[in-house]
Amino acid sequence: MKISPEIVVLYNKLKKIYQQRDKVSKEENKIEVDEITSHLASLYEKLRNSIDFKEVHLLRRFAIERNLKRRFIVEALKPNIAKGLIEELIRARYLLNDTVAETQIKEVEKVIEKYNKLFLLMNDMYHGKEINDYFNWLIGVEACEIDMLLNPEDIEDAVIEAMYQVTKQRVKLKGDDLSIKEKNIQLYIAIHKSLVKSDDTIISYHLLNLYFDKWLKADEILIKLMATNLPAVYNDIQHRLQHPYQRRIYNAIKEPVVTFKILLELIYAKAKDFEELLVSPELLESESKILINQKYKKLRNKISKASVRAIIYIFITKVLIAMVLEIPYEVYIIHELNYINLAINAVFPTFLMFLVTLSIVPPKEENTNKILRNLTNLIYDEKESSILCQLKTKYRKSFAFQIFYYSMYTILYVVVFGAIIYFLRELNFNVLSGAIFILFLTAVSFFAVKIRSSAKELLVIKKKEGFISFLINFFSLPIVAAGRWMSRRFKKINVFAFIMDFIIEAPFKLFISAFEDWLGFLREKKEEVYHDNQ
Questions:
Q1: H helices within 126-229, ranges in order?
Q2: What does the alpha-carbon distance between residue 346 and residue 319 come to, in Å, rounded to a whole number?
Q3: What pLDDT digit, counting tens, does each position of 302-341 carry?
Q4: β-pairing, 387-390 with 171-174?
Q5: Rounded-to-integer distance, Cα 485 and Cα 399, Å
Q6: How many angstroms separate the CA atoms of 41 and 516, rounded?
Q7: Is a pLDDT exceeding 60 seen at residue 76?
Q8: Which stretch of DSSP H or E encloses residue 173?
Q9: 474, 476, 475: which is closest to 465 by C-alpha?
Q10: Is the four-CA dihedral 213, 57, 155, 374 of positive or negative sign?
Q11: What is the residue-averaged pLDDT of the chain?
C-alpha cells in the first residue's frame, strides 16, 4: 500500500531526530542532586501545586516561570543562576536525577542572558502597565524556551507539522470571510491546543519564533529589533490567541486530532521501529488497537488523578477560607456556629466531584474501530472528506435580537441562582456561608466540565444529546459560566499561591540548597575519616 507523502516526510524527520539524539555523548558529566533534599523539594512542589490547579504537563514550565520571577525580585536574573535553576527542577523531580548534561548549564545561561538584555532595553523604552504586561508575557516565553531546551519536544513538533500539512488543505471555511493566512495561523494554534494541550504561553513562544526565525540564536541586533517592535509583536500575538473563530476551527478538527494522538503514541511506543508498522498494515492495526485500549485505561487514571487534585485544591482552599473568614464571621459577628452548614460547605464539593468521576463512561468498540479506520486512511493516503468549519453563527445578529438573547440569558441566570439562594435560605445559611457555597458550587461545576471534556479526548463517535442531558446542561450553564469567570479571576489574585511563591518559597529553596551543601560536606568528612582509618 502507498504511504501518504506527509507520513513519509514525518518518518524522515523522525529518523533525523533519533540520529541527532544518538550523537549526544553518553560520557558527558550529568547534574546530580541529593535524594534526601529531593524528597523535601518534591513534597513542597506537590503542596504548592495543590493550591493552584494546573494541567500536569504544564507544571514544569510553571515551576521554571516561578523560579525566574522569584529570582528577578530577590536577586535579579543573572546568567549564573542557571545551575541553581536546573538543580531545583531536578530536586523537585521535574527532571530525572543524573540525566541532564552539565553542558546544558551554559545553554540555559545564554537564554537568560538574551532575555536580560531585552528586559534592560524594555526598561529604557516602555513605562507603566505596558511594561508589566510585556514582562509577564516574556518571562513565560523565556520559561518555555528553557523548558524546551532541557526537555526538547522535537517529536511532538514534527507530528504537529504533519497534522498541519494534512488538515490545512481539508479545512473548508463556510460563512464570514477569513484570509488564507489567518486561517492557517488559527489552524496551527488549534492543532497545538488540541493535540498536545499547549497553553497560550507555549503558543506565544512558537509564534514569536515564526516572527523572528533566528530568535533562538538572537544576536545584539535582533534583540534590539525585538525590543523596538515589542508592542506590535505582543499585540499581534494576543490578537491571534483571542481570535473569535479559533474555537470553531478547534471544534472542527476534533476527529483528526484523535487520529494524530494515536499516531504520536505509536511513535513514542515504537521509536526507531516505527518503520515496521508503516510497511505492515496488519501489524499497524493490531498494535494500534492494543495502544488505543491502553489509552482508554490511562485516560481513566488521568481523570481519577485530575479529580483527586481538584478535590484537594478545593478542599484546601475551602478550609483556608473557613479558617480566615467563615468561622471568625460566625463566632464574632453572628455569635453562633452552624456546624451543619459548615459540614455541607466542606462535603458537598467533594461529593459532587466524586459523582462526576463515577458518571464518566469509557468509549465503546465502535469508537475504536472508527479510530483505526481513520488512522489507516491517514497513513496509506486514502482520500478523506473535507472538514467543514462553520464560521458564521446560526442565529441572527441584529441589535434587536442581541437584546432579546441577552435578556433571556440574564433571566436564566436569575432563575438558576435565585433557586439556589432560596434553598440556601431554607437551610438557614447566612450571607457569607451562602456566598462561599455558591463560590465552590461554581468552581466545582467548572472543574467537572473540564474533567468531563478530557474524558471525551478519544471520542470520535458523536453521541446525540438526550432530553434529560439537555435540561441538565441548560440549567447548569450559568453555574459553569460563573465558575469559569471566577476561575480566571482567582488565578490572577491567588493569595495563597502568592504567599508560597514570594514569602515561603525563597527561604525554603535557600534552606534546601544549604542543606544539600552541608550533606556534601558531611560525606566528604566521612570519606576522610574512613580513608584515614584504612
A1: 129-150, 154-168, 180-195, 200-211, 220-228
A2: 8
A3: 777 777 777 777 777 777 777 788 888 888 888 888 888 8
A4: parallel
A5: 25
A6: 11
A7: no
A8: strand 171-174
A9: 474
A10: negative
A11: 83
